[in-house]
Amino acid sequence: MQTVFILNGPNLNLLGKRQPEIYGRETLADVEAGCRALAGELGFDIRFAQSNAEHQIIDWIHEAREAAAGIIINPGAFTHTSVAILDALNAFEGPVLEVHISNVHKRESFRHHSYVSLRADGVIAGFGVEGYVLATRRMATLILEGRSA
Ligand code: CA2
């Protein structure tokens, strides 16, 4: 069975515990459960992970080169700063989807630019944690398209 990596960057471990007006009340464990259930219905497995360390996220993206059919990533604040994560994603051949819980374009101007968007095949922002589920569904389509290409 194919695996999709769902990677989360800094501070997302606080989801559901702080700033619910921006990020909602669901925890990252709730998000993982929702994605896992849908992925199961769609016929693939997920590996769901979060780290506050940039090098850890880069190492997971490198692992994905051998182990994942696609990557869904919410890089947190690294979205706006990390050329290193962009470089790692550029070395991954499968589909990449970028997710943001909040609508970054409605927030401070430093959140309007994403290095990761230069690689992402699709971007979801402002759909709350539902964005992860929508990305999981879209990933199934992209993986199927990849198989027939
Ligand atoms: O909207 C998103 O998903 C972000 O990637 C979240 C990042 C932020 O730096 C990006 O600009 C947009 C911040 C993640 C912090 O997550 C928290 C969750 C709950 C409480 C506190 C922080």
Automatic annotation (TrEMBL):
Q: Name one Pfam family in it.
A: DHquinase_II
The protein's matches in Gene3D superfamilies, at most eight in alphabetical order, are given as:
Dehydroquinase, class II
Q: In the Enzyme Commission scheme, what number(s) does this protein have?
A: 4.2.1.10
What's one GO MF term for it?
A: 3-dehydroquinate dehydratase activity
Q: SUPFAM superfamilies recorded for this chain?
A: Type II 3-dehydroquinate dehydratase
| UniProt KW keywords | Amino-acid biosynthesis, Aromatic amino acid biosynthesis, Lyase
Biochemical pathway? Metabolic intermediate biosynthesis; chorismate biosynthesis; chorismate from D-erythrose 4-phosphate and phosphoenolpyruvate: step 3/7
Site note Transition state stabilizer, residues: R18
Signal peptide start and end residues: none
Residues the record lists as binding substrate:
N74, H80, D87, I101, S102, R111
Q: Could you tell me the Gene Ontology terms of the biological process aspect for this record?
A: amino acid biosynthetic process; aromatic amino acid family biosynthetic process; chorismate biosynthetic process; quinate catabolic process
Function recorded in the entry: Catalyzes a trans-dehydration via an enolate intermediate.
The annotated subunit structure for this chain is:
Homododecamer.
Family statement drawn from the similarity comment of this UniProt entry: Belongs to the type-II 3-dehydroquinase family.
Question: What protein am I looking at?
Answer: 3-dehydroquinate dehydratase
Task: Look up and give the organism this protein is from.
Answer: Aquibium carbonis
Lineage here is: Bacteria, Pseudomonadati, Pseudomonadota, Alphaproteobacteria, Hyphomicrobiales
